[in-house]
DUF1080 domain-containing protein
Amino acid sequence: MVMSLLLTFFTTFTFNNLYAMPVISPLEGRWDITIDVDGKPAPAWLEVRLSGTKTLVGQFVCVVGSARPVAEIHLKDGKFSFAIPAQWEQGDNDLRVEGTLEGEKISGTLITVDGKAQTWTGVRAPILRRTAAPVWGKPIKLTEGNSMEKWHAEGNHQWIAEKGILSSPKSGANLMTKDKFNDFKLHIEFRIPKGSNSGVYLRGRYEVQVTDSKGMEPALDQMGAIYGFLVPNEMVAKEAGEWNTYDITLIGKLVTVVANGKTVISNQDIPGITGGALDSNEAEPGPLLIQGDHGPVEYRNIIITPAK
């Protein structure tokens, strides 16, 4: 009789605890955020999800750096807050975010690691799920001869176009196309010296890493990765100073990356913008941007094929 009661209690307790229905929070989901930094807009991104039945966790992308885990998000009466350690910022304090949820919008204040308060607003990030396969248009060659007419950089810059190669001999400005694109296929070749670093931003928002990674294990911040979000399934980088190739397809937020002839990311969802993005307006077309502020790099044979 005692064993029977214990078994009934254990079964009921286990069922109730393992299969308790989680409480769904209206804050859950992905949010595209714009921060006011001294009067200028800067992009950020937040994902909120439920862990277990009542704890909200997530990840956050600020103006610089990669996606950072958020151990717990506190929510009460429409007010929420969380704190995360500094990443690349210079300071000893945590970065703190306080916000208010109002329907499909959020807003609040970000306290930087040096104690400055910056206001921000956010809207739900679009899913961008396509209902039909793309019909591809005509390929556009973005590197030809000694011309940079299809590219733009801010102010004085270090980029040089010579014999179809775009070269950044030292750290300086980023380079972006004058035209903006929605869905596309991209072929791009790059050469990077030992220890240098660059990246290719799709729509100016999602960085595909370009690094000197020969012999390394695949990682969120090395060649083939979508910075901070998607790890390539294999490291196929060549030796520093050799030419590498990417063939990248972006449809909505689904990305496929073929590096040096091998598919290292296959039709994976990019959760949100990566650090260093131009903006957080994910529903809009954007330029192709190549990073020139992390060391020397060369690019050639850049061909983009947009969807019609």
In short: Confidence is low (pLDDT under 50) at residues 5-21. The radius of gyration is 22 Å. Residues 2-18 form the longest helix (17 residues).
